[in-house]
UniProtKB/TrEMBL annotation, chain A:
Belongs to the aldehyde dehydrogenase family. This is Aldehyde dehydrogenase 1. Pfam families: Aldedh. One of its GO terms (molecular function) is aldehyde dehydrogenase (NAD+) activity. It comes from Brachypodium distachyon (Purple false brome). Homotetramer. Residues 1-21 are annotated as: Disordered. SUPFAM superfamilies: ALDH-like.
UniProtKB/TrEMBL annotation, chain B:
This is Aldehyde dehydrogenase 1. Coiled coil: none annotated. The active site is at 277. The gene is LOC100832456. The keyword Oxidoreductase applies. It comes from Brachypodium distachyon. Belongs to the aldehyde dehydrogenase family. Keywords: NAD, Oxidoreductase. Homotetramer.
Length: 509, 510
C-alpha cells in the first residue's frame, strides 16, 4: 500500500515490505545546518530511490557549494566560539552516550529507513548496522576523556610535553554501503576529539544521516557541531574537499574519488586527508581447512551486504587438495541462497543499491564470461524489477583477468587454485590494493607466515568481517591511508603540539 | 683545498677557505655513478658566488634506477629483515663515522649553504648525530598492541615498514634535515631515495659515502640500495619521486608551493602517503614582565640565527607596550652588533644567504616593507659587494595586513609590533595561514599556560626558542603542513599498521 501526501516533497511512504512490514514515514529530507533543517539555497532537490523497485521514495534537499559554505561557517563558529571543544572529555562523553541511547530507542525506525534506502537486509541492519553504530558511538563516548599527550624528559635543561588538540572543522564524506556505520565511524571519534563537522552522506543513501542528525540535537549536541549536507560528490563533496576553512577531510569511497579529494586538498589549503578506499581482498583456504566452515566463510565474505563491502573477499584462493570438495559444497550451499525483498526475514540478499551499481556489476559479469571464466552459478539478474542479481561464482579465473583485478562491488566471487604457500603469497599481494585478507588453516606456522606476508591493513584468520570498535581498520597501498576504529581513529582529528620550557635548578634532569 | 680572492665583508681583502669536494656523483645501490644523461649542475659558494663543484644531475631515469634499487633492497634485502636491535647497531656505526668526520662535514655545509662553521661543528653535525642515535635506539622499541576485542576473537596490531620512502629535503639545514627524515625511516626498516636540495647537495653525498663505509668498519654495514641519494632539481628529480608508482611514502620539508605539488602528484599517481613540513611566520610574544635583555637576545636569535633561513624563525615579534620603547632601543643595538661575515670566521654571527635567488627575494621583501609604510629601524640593504650578505634588518610599525607580516620572507628581517592585552596578542599570533611555532616570554605561569594553549602552532617555546630535541614531536598546524618529525611518533609515518584477528573458539575467558 503506497500513499502520497501533498506539500513539501518527501512525505511519501514506500511500498510495504515482504511479510507486511509497514514502511516508515520519511520525515527528514532537508539539509541539517546549525541545528535546523533547511532547504538548499538553490531550492533544488534530488530523488532517492527504492532499489527493490527503482521507484523514488523521497525528494531530498540537494546541497551545493553555497550550502557547504553555510555549514562550514556554522561548524567554524561552533568550534572557535562554541562549547563543544571547550567541554571536558567526560562531558562530551555524557552527551555522546545520551545520543547512543536515543539511537537504540529509535533503532526500529532507523533500521527501516536504512534498509529501504540501501536495499540492506532488515534483520541484519537491525542487529549489525545499528548495533555497530551504537557500539561505535559508545566506544568513543568512553574515549573522549582518555586522550593523552606525553611528557618528554629531553636532553639539556628543558621540560617538554605534547598537547593533543582538536583539529577544528572536519569534512566527512561517507559512502552508501553501510550508511549508519559509516556515519558514526567518522562522526564519533571527531566528536570525542572536540571537533565540529560537516558530513556529506552518499546521494544514494541520505535518509539515515538526516534522521540521526535530528537525534543529535535531541541528545544535546550543540548547534553547528554536526552539520549534514546531502548532495552529490562533484558539487557538495568537492566543495568540502577544496574548502579553505575545513581543517581535515576523512573519506571512505572509491579510489577514483579518493584521488580527487587528495588533489583538492593539495590545491586548496593542504588539509590533511585520510582515505579508506577500495579493495580486492584475497581469502586463502588451505588444504587443512574444514570445508563446511570455509564455504560458509567464503559465502559471507562475498555475498554479505550483496557484495557491497570494501573488504569483500572477491578473490578466493583454494589449495588444490581442497578445491573439488569446496567447489561442490559451495554450489550446493548456494542453491538455498534466497535473493529477494530485504524486508523479508527469510531473504539472504537484497538488491544492489541503485541502477548504476546494478549495471556496473552486470557488465563485470559479462567481462568474466568474455574473458573465458566459467560460471559455476548465477551470472545474471534476478527478477524483472529493481536491482537484484543472482549470487555469482566464477571458476577457471586467471589472475590477469579484469574480474580478478578490479573491484566489482557486487555479489561476484572468483575462485582460483594454488599449490604452495609461496605461490599464494605472491598472488595475494599482486594487486595495487591492500585492504583486507582472510586465511583459513589450522596450522600455526602457515597462519603466522601468511599474516606476516600479506600486505593488507587487516588479516582475518579463520574468520572474516570480524570488526571491532577497538580494532584499527584501514588500508595500505591504493586502498588508502589512515585508520578508522580504535583509539588510532582519534589521531586524524587531533593536532599534536609540543610545549617546551627551560627548567632551571632541577634536582635531576 | 682551494681559495679565492676577497670574500668576507669585514673589509679585509682576504681569501675564503674552500673545502675539498670529494663526492659529486649520484649514489645508487652502493655506488657513485654519473647521471644517465651525463648532465651535471653547479653548486655555488654563497660567500663569493663562485662555483664550488659540478654535481651529477639526476632526472626521472636516475630516480627510476634508485627506486628500483631501493625496492630490491626492501623486498629481498637484509635491512627490513634484520632485528630492530641490529639495525640500531648499524645506525650507531654510521653515527660514529659522522662524529669522526665532523670537521669535513661542517666545512661542506659552510661552503655550500653559507652556514657558520663553528656552529656546524658544535650544533648542526652533533644534532644530526644525536638524531641518528635517537632512532638507532628506537629501532627495537616499535610496538603494536594486543586487543581483546568482543566476541570469540583475539586481535593484535603489527607495525610493518611501509616500503620505499622518498625524501625531499631543503637547503637550510642540509645535514640535520637529511637525518631528521632518514633516521626514523631506517629504524622502521624502510629503504630510502633522498633528493637533497640543488643548492646544497654536498653533505648528502658525503653521508652516502659514510653509509657505504660502514661496511668496512666492521662486517655489517648499511646494505647497498638502502640509502640512495639523487641530487637534482625539484621539477625533474623531485617530481619523479613524488609521482613514482613504486614509492610508498614521501616526506618533504620545504615551501608550501612545492608541498602542494607533491600532494597533488601523490593523488595522481599511487596515493602514496605524504608528510609535509612547510613554511611559517612564527610569532614571538614578549610580555611586560619579561627580562628585557633576555628578550632582546632571544628575539635576535629567533630571527637572525642561520641568517633567518629557518622555517620556525620568530619573524613576527610582539612586544607588550609597557616595555616596548626600551625593547626597541636595545633590539636595534643588538642587531647592529650581530656580525655579518665569512661563516668560516669564528667571530661571525651570520653568513650569507644561501644563493642569489634567496638574496634577491629577501631584498625585494625589504623594499616591499618600506613601500608598505613600515619603519625601517636598522639594516635594510646588502652587507657587502660580493656574495649574498644582507644586514640584520628590523621593521617597526608593521601592520598585520602588510605582506611582510603575512608572507614568509626566509631571511634576516624582523617585523616588530606592539600589543596591549593578552587577547590581542593571541588573536594576532593566530592570524596567519601558518602554524609552525611560537615563542612566549613571561614569568607569569597563567599567562604562559593560557597563551601556549591558545596559539595554534605545532611547537610552543616558553622563555626559550629553537629548543629542539629528538624527543619532542615537530611539525605544523594549518598551512605549515601535516605529519610530525622527531619523537617516536615520527616512526609511524614510515610504518603500516596491520590488524590481525584470529577466531579463538575455546578460551577460558574472553
Amino acid at each position: 500500500m503506497a500513499s502520497e501526501r501533498n506539500g513539501d516533497g518527501g512525505e511519501k511512504r514506500a511500498e510495504n515490505g515482504g511479510g507486511g512490514v509497514e514502511m516508515p514515514e520519511i520525515r527528514y529530507t532537508k539539509l541539517f545546518i546549525n541545528g535546523s533543517f533547511v532547504d538548499a539555497v538553490s531550492g533544488k532537490t534530488f530523488e532517492t530511490r527504492d532499489p527493490r523497485t527503482g521507484d523514488a521514495i523521497a525528494s531530498i534537499a540537494e546541497g551545493d557549494k553555497e550550502d557547504v559554505d553555510l555549514a562550514v561557517r556554522a561548524a567554524r563558529e561552533a568550534f572557535d566560539h562554541g562549547k563543544w571543544p571547550r567541554m571536558s572529555g567526560s562531558e562530551r562523553g555524557k552527551i555522546m552516550t545520551k545520543y547512543a541511547d536515543l539511537l537504540e530507542q529509535h533503532a526500529e525506525e532507523l533500521t527501516k529507513l536504512e534498509s529501504l534506502d540501501a536495499g540492506k537486509l532488515v534483520v541484519v541492519t537491525r542487529a549489525v548496522d545499528i548495533g555497530a553504530s551504537v557500539g561505535t558511538l559508545r566506544y568513543f563516548a568512553g574515549a573522549a576523556d582518555k586522550i593523552h599527550g606525553e611528557t618528554l624528559k629531553m636532553s639539556r635543561q628543558f621540560q617538554g610535553h605534547t598537547l593533543r588538540e582538536p583539529m577544528g572543522v572536519a569534512g566527512l564524506i561517507i559512502p552508501w554501503n553501510f550508511p549508519s556505520i559509516m556515519f558514526f565511524t567518522k562522526v564519533a571519534p571527531a566528536l570525542a576529539a572536540g571537533c565540529t563537522m560537516v558530513v556529506k552522506p552518499a546521494e544514494q543513501t541520505p535518509l539515515s544521516a538526516l534522521y540521526v542528525a535530528h537525534l543529535a540535537k535531541q541528545a544535546g549536541v550543540p548547534d553547528g557541531v554536526i552539520n549534514v549536507v546531502t548532495g552529490f560528490g562533484p558539487t557538495a563533496g568537492a566543495a568540502i574537499a577544496s574548502h579553505m576553512d575545513v581543517d581535515m577531510v576523512s573519506f571512505t569511497g572509491s579510489t577514483a574519488v579518493g584521488r580527487l579529494v587528495m588533489e583538492a586538498s593539495a590545491r586548496s589549503n593542504l588539509k590533511p586527508v585520510s582515505l579508506e578506499l577500495g579493495g580486492k581482498s584475497p581469502l586463502i583456504i588451505f588444504d587443512d581447512a574444514d570445508v563446511d566452515m570455509a564455504v560458509d566463510l567464503a559465502i559471507g565474505a562475498n555475498f554479505f551486504n550483496k557484495g557491497e563491502a570494501c573488504v569483500a573477499a572477491s578473490r578466493v584462493y583454494l589449495q588444490e587438495g581442497i578445491y573439488d570438495r569446496f567447489e561442490k559444497k559451495l554450489a550446493d550451499s548456494l542453491k538455498n541462497w534466497v535473493v529477494g525483498d530485504p524486508f523479508d526475514p527469510r531473504v539472504n540478499q537484497g538488491p544492489q543499491v541503485d541502477k548504476a551499481q546494478y549495471e556496473r556489476v552486470l557488465s563485470y559479469i559479462e567481462h568474466g564470461k568474455r574473458e573465458g571464466a566459467t560460471v559455476l552459478t548465477g551470472g545474471k539478474p534476478c527478477g524483472q524489477k529493481g536491482y537484484y542479481i543472482d549470487p555469482t561464482v566464477f571458476t577457471d579465473v586467471k589472475d590477469d583477468m579484469i574480474i580478478a583485478k578490479e573491484e566489482i562491488f557486487g555479489p561476484v566471487m572468483c575462485l582460483m587454485k594454488f599449490r604452495t604457500v609461496e605461490e599464494v603469497i605472491a598472488k595475494a599481494n599482486d594487486t595495487r590494493y591492500g585492504l583486507a585478507a582472510g586465511v583459513v588453516t589450522k596450522d600455526i606456522d602457515v597462519a603466522n607466515r601468511m599474516t606476516r606476508s600479506i600486505r593488507a591493513g587487516v588479516v582475518w584468520v579463520n574468520c572474516y568481517f570480524a570488526m571491532d570498535a577497538d580494532c584499527p581498520f584501514g588500508g595500505r597501498k591504493m586502498s588508502g591511508y589512515g585508520k578508522d576504529a580504535s583509539m588510532h581513529a582519534l589521531d586524524k582529528f587531533l593536532a599534536v603540539k609540543s610545549v617546551v620550557t627551560p627548567v632551571y635548578d632541577s634536582p635531576w634532569l | 683545498m682551494g681559495s679565492n680572492e676577497g670574500g668576507a665583508c669585514d673589509g679585509k681583502a682576504g681569501s675564503v677557505v674552500v673545502p675539498e669536494i670529494k663526492f659529486t656523483k649520484l649514489f645508487i645501490n652502493g655506488e657513485f655513478v654519473d647521471a644517465a644523461s651525463g648532465k651535471t649542475f653547479e653548486t655555488r659558494d654563497p660567500r663569493t658566488g663562485d662555483v664550488l663543484a659540478h654535481v651529477a644531475e639526476a632526472d626521472k631515469a636516475d630516480v627510476d634506477i634508485a627506486v628500483h634499487a631501493a625496492r630490491e633492497a626492501f623486498e629481498h634485502g637484509k635491512w627490513p629483515r634484520m632485528s630492530g636491535y641490529e639495525r640500531g647497531r648499524v645506525m650507531n656505526k654510521l653515527a660514529d663515522l659522522m662524529e669522526q668526520h665532523t670537521e669535513e662535514l661542517a666545512l661542506l655545509d659552510g661552503a655550500d649553504a653559507g652556514k657558520l662553521l663553528l656552529l656546524g661543528k658544535i650544533i648542526d653535525i652533533p644534532a644530526a648525530v644525536q638524531m641518528l642515535r635517537y632512532y638507532a635506539g628506537g629501532a627495537d622499541k616499535i610496538h603494536g598492541e594486543s586487543l581483546r576485542v568482543s566476541g570469540k576473537y583475539q586481535g593484535y596490531t603489527l607495525k610493518e615498514p611501509i616500503g620505499v620512502v622518498g625524501v625531499i629535503i631543503p637547503w637550510n639545514f642540509p645535514s640535520l634535515m637529511f637525518f631528521l627524515k632518514i633516521s626514523p625511516a631506517l629504524a622502521a626498516g624502510c629503504t630510502v631515495v633522498v633528493k637533497p636540495a640543488e643548492q646544497t647537495p654536498l653533505s648528502a653525498l658525503y653521508y652516502a659515502h659514510l653509509a657505504k663505509l660502514t661496511e668496512y668498519v666492521v662486517q655489517a654495514g648499511i646494505p647497498d640500495g638502502v640509502i640512495n641519494v639523487v641530487p637534482g632539481f625539484g621539477p625533474t628529480a623531485g617530481a619523479a619521486i613524488a609521482s613514482h608508482m613504486d614509492v610508498d611514502s614521501v616526506a618533504f620539508t620545504g615551501s608550501g608551493e612545492v608541498g602542494r605539488l607533491i600532494m597533488e602528484a601523490s593523488a595522481r599517481s599511487n596515493l602514496k602517503t605524504v608528510s609535509l613540513e612547510l613554511g611559517g611566520k612564527s610569532p614571538l610574544i614578549i610580555f611586560d614582565d619579561a627580562d628585557i635583555d633576555m628578550a632582546v637576545e632571544l628575539s635576535r636569535l629567533a630571527i637572525f640565527f642561520n641568517k633567518g633561513e629557518v622555517c620556525v624563525a620568530g619573524s613576527r615579534v610582539y612586544v607588550q607596550e609597557g616595555i616596548y620603547d626600551e625593547f626597541v632601543k636595545k633590539a636595534v643595538v643588538a642587531a647592529q652588533n650581530w656580525k655579518v661575515g665569512d661563516p668560516f670566521d669564528v667571530t661571525t654571527n651570520m653568513g650569507p644567504q644561501v644563493d642569489k635567488e634567496q638574496f634577491e627575494r629577501v631584498l625585494r621583501y625589504i623594499d616591499l616593507g618600506k613601500s608598505e609604510g613600515a619603519t625601517l629601524l636598522t639594516g635594510g640593504k646588502p652587507a657587502a659587494d660580493k656574495g649574498y650578505y644582507i644586514e640584520p634588518t628590523i621593521f617597526a610599525d608593521v601592520k598585520e595586513d602588510m605582506q611582510i607580516a603575512q608572507d614568509e620572507i626566509f631571511g634576516p628581517v624582523m617585523s616588530l609590533m606592539k600589543f596591549k592585552t593578552i587577547d590581542e596578542a593571541i588573536e594576532k599570533a593566530n592570524c596567519t595561514k601558518y602554524g609552525l611555532a611560537a615563542g612566549i616570554i613571561t614569568k607569569d605561569l597563567n599567562i604562559a599556560n593560557r597563551v601556549s594553549r591558545s596559539v595554534r602552532a605545532g611547537t610552543v617555546w616558553v622563555n626559550c626558542y629553537f629548543a629542539f630535541d629528538p624527543e619532542a614531536p615537530f611539525g605544523g598546524y594549518k598551512m605549515s603542513g601535516f605529519g610530525r618529525d622527531q619523537g617516536m611518533m615520527a616512526i609511524d609515518k614510515y610504518m603500516q599498521v596491520k590488524s590481525v584477528i584470529t577466531a579463538v573458539p575455546d578460551s577460558p575467558w574472553y
